Protein backbone atom coordinates (compact mmCIF):
# COMPACT_ATOMS: atom_id res chain seq x y z
CA UNK A 1 0.00 0.00 0.00
CA UNK A 2 1.41 3.41 -0.96
CA UNK A 3 1.65 6.21 1.57
CA UNK A 4 -1.03 8.10 -0.35
CA UNK A 5 -3.38 5.11 -0.24
CA UNK A 6 -2.76 4.77 3.49
CA UNK A 7 -3.46 8.47 4.05
CA UNK A 8 -6.61 8.36 1.92
CA UNK A 9 -7.89 5.33 3.86
CA UNK A 10 -7.29 7.12 7.16
CA UNK A 11 -8.88 10.39 6.07
CA UNK A 12 -11.90 8.62 4.55
CA UNK A 13 -12.83 7.48 8.08
CA UNK A 14 -13.06 11.08 9.35
CA UNK A 15 -16.73 11.99 9.89
CA UNK A 16 -16.40 15.36 8.13
CA UNK A 17 -14.91 13.88 4.93
CA UNK A 18 -16.31 11.80 2.08
CA UNK A 19 -14.76 10.33 -1.05
CA UNK A 20 -15.74 12.11 -4.27
CA UNK A 21 -14.58 12.33 -7.87
CA UNK A 22 -11.94 15.08 -8.17
CA UNK A 23 -12.97 18.16 -10.13
CA UNK A 24 -9.63 18.08 -11.95
CA UNK A 25 -10.41 14.58 -13.20
CA UNK A 26 -7.23 12.93 -11.92
CA UNK A 27 -6.94 10.44 -9.06
CA UNK A 28 -9.21 10.35 -6.02
CA UNK A 29 -10.56 13.14 -3.84
CA UNK A 30 -12.05 13.93 -0.47
CA UNK A 31 -14.64 16.59 0.19
CA UNK A 32 -16.18 18.21 3.23
CA UNK A 33 -19.60 19.84 3.40
CA UNK A 34 -17.84 23.05 2.28
CA UNK A 35 -16.15 21.64 -0.84
CA UNK A 36 -13.22 19.58 -2.08
CA UNK A 37 -10.35 19.40 0.34
CA UNK A 38 -7.82 16.87 -0.99
CA UNK A 39 -6.88 15.37 -4.34
CA UNK A 40 -4.72 12.23 -4.36
CA UNK A 41 -3.06 12.38 -7.77
CA UNK A 42 -0.54 9.59 -7.46
CA UNK A 43 1.00 7.20 -4.97
CA UNK A 44 2.93 10.11 -3.49
CA UNK A 45 1.44 13.51 -4.42
CA UNK A 46 -1.58 15.08 -2.71
CA UNK A 47 -3.04 18.52 -3.32
CA UNK A 48 -4.68 19.98 -0.21
CA UNK A 49 -7.11 22.90 -0.37
CA UNK A 50 -5.64 24.76 2.58
CA UNK A 51 -7.26 28.08 1.53
CA UNK A 52 -5.53 31.32 0.67
CA UNK A 53 -6.00 32.74 4.17
CA UNK A 54 -4.45 29.69 5.91
CA UNK A 55 -1.52 29.59 3.47
CA UNK A 56 -0.74 33.25 4.15
CA UNK A 57 -1.05 32.71 7.92
CA UNK A 58 1.23 29.64 7.86
CA UNK A 59 3.60 30.71 5.06
CA UNK A 60 6.74 30.75 7.18
CA UNK A 61 6.03 27.35 8.69
CA UNK A 62 5.04 25.72 5.40
CA UNK A 63 8.33 26.74 3.78
CA UNK A 64 10.25 24.78 6.43
CA UNK A 65 8.99 21.44 5.05
CA UNK A 66 10.64 19.97 1.95
CA UNK A 67 7.52 17.83 1.46
CA UNK A 68 5.32 20.89 0.87
CA UNK A 69 5.11 22.87 -2.33
CA UNK A 70 3.45 26.27 -1.97
CA UNK A 71 2.45 27.74 -5.32
CA UNK A 72 2.02 31.50 -5.59
CA UNK A 73 -1.57 32.39 -6.34
CA UNK A 74 -2.98 28.98 -5.43
CA UNK A 75 -5.21 28.14 -2.47
CA UNK A 76 -3.89 24.56 -2.66
CA UNK A 77 -0.57 23.18 -1.43
CA UNK A 78 1.03 20.03 -2.80
CA UNK A 79 2.40 17.50 -0.34
CA UNK A 80 4.84 14.84 -1.47
CA UNK A 81 4.51 11.70 0.65
CA UNK A 82 7.95 10.11 0.87
CA UNK A 83 7.86 9.03 4.54
CA UNK A 84 5.39 8.29 7.33
CA UNK A 85 6.13 11.72 8.80
CA UNK A 86 4.77 13.26 5.58
CA UNK A 87 1.48 11.39 6.11
CA UNK A 88 1.32 12.78 9.66
CA UNK A 89 1.93 16.26 8.22
CA UNK A 90 -0.89 15.75 5.70
CA UNK A 91 -3.29 14.63 8.45
CA UNK A 92 -2.43 17.67 10.57
CA UNK A 93 -2.80 20.08 7.66
CA UNK A 94 -6.11 18.48 6.70
CA UNK A 95 -7.43 19.46 10.13
CA UNK A 96 -6.25 23.02 9.47
CA UNK A 97 -7.90 22.94 6.02
CA UNK A 98 -11.22 21.77 7.47
CA UNK A 99 -11.21 24.58 10.01
CA UNK A 100 -10.21 27.11 7.33
CA UNK A 101 -13.04 25.99 5.03
CA UNK A 102 -15.55 26.32 7.86
CA UNK A 103 -14.46 29.94 8.33
CA UNK A 104 -15.68 30.75 4.84
CA UNK A 105 -13.85 32.31 1.89
CA UNK A 106 -11.63 35.33 2.36
CA UNK A 107 -13.01 38.38 0.61
CA UNK A 108 -9.69 40.16 0.24
CA UNK A 109 -8.52 38.79 -3.12
CA UNK A 110 -9.53 36.44 -5.89
CA UNK A 111 -7.73 33.10 -6.00
CA UNK A 112 -7.55 31.05 -9.22
CA UNK A 113 -9.59 27.88 -9.00
CA UNK A 114 -8.28 24.37 -9.46
CA UNK A 115 -5.75 22.27 -7.62
CA UNK A 116 -2.03 22.52 -8.33
CA UNK A 117 -1.93 19.31 -10.39
CA UNK A 118 -4.90 20.44 -12.48
CA UNK A 119 -3.14 23.76 -13.12
CA UNK A 120 0.16 21.98 -13.91
CA UNK A 121 2.06 23.62 -11.06
CA UNK A 122 2.55 20.89 -8.43
CA UNK A 123 5.76 18.92 -8.01
CA UNK A 124 7.51 18.17 -11.30
CA UNK A 125 6.68 14.76 -12.71
CA UNK A 126 9.54 12.28 -12.39
How would you characterize the overall build of this protein?
With 126 residues, this protein is of the alpha+beta class. It has helices at residues 3-11, 52-62, 84-102, and strands at residues 18-20, 28-32, 35-40, 45-49, 68-70, 76-80. A six-stranded antiparallel β-sheet has the order 1-2-3-4-6-5, with helices on one face. A hairpin with a 4-residue loop joins strand 3 and strand 4. Helix 1 packs parallel to helix 3.
Chart the SSEs and their pairings:
Blueprint: H1 3-11, E1 18-20, E2 28-32, E3 35-40, E4 45-49, H2 52-62, E5 68-70, E6 76-80, H3 84-102
Antiparallel strand pairs: 1-2, 2-3, 3-4, 4-6, 5-6
Helix pairs in contact: 1-3
Quick structural summary:
The chain is of the alpha+beta class and 126 residues long. The protein has 3 helices and 6 strands; from the N terminus they run H-E-E-E-E-H-E-E-H.
Descriptive keywords:
single chain, alpha+beta, six-stranded antiparallel beta sheet, 3 helices, about 130 residues
Helix and strand pattern: HEEEEHEEH
Question: Separation of termini?
Answer: 20 Å
> Given the C-alpha coordinates, what overall shape results?
globular
In percent, how much strand structure appears in the residues? 15-25%
The major β-sheet equals: 6 strands, antiparallel
Taking Cα atoms only, what radius of gyration do you get, to the nearest Å? 13 Å
Q: How are the strands of the biggest sheet laid out side by side?
A: 1-2-3-4-6-5
* Helix/strand class: alpha+beta
Low-pLDDT stretches are: 107-111
Average residue-wise pLDDT? 86
Tally of helical segments: 3
* Helical content band: 25-40%
Number of strands: 6
Amino acid sequence: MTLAARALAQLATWPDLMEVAPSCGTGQALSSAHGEIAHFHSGRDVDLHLTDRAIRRLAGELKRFAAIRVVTGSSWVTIRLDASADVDLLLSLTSVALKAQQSGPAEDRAVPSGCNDGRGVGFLRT
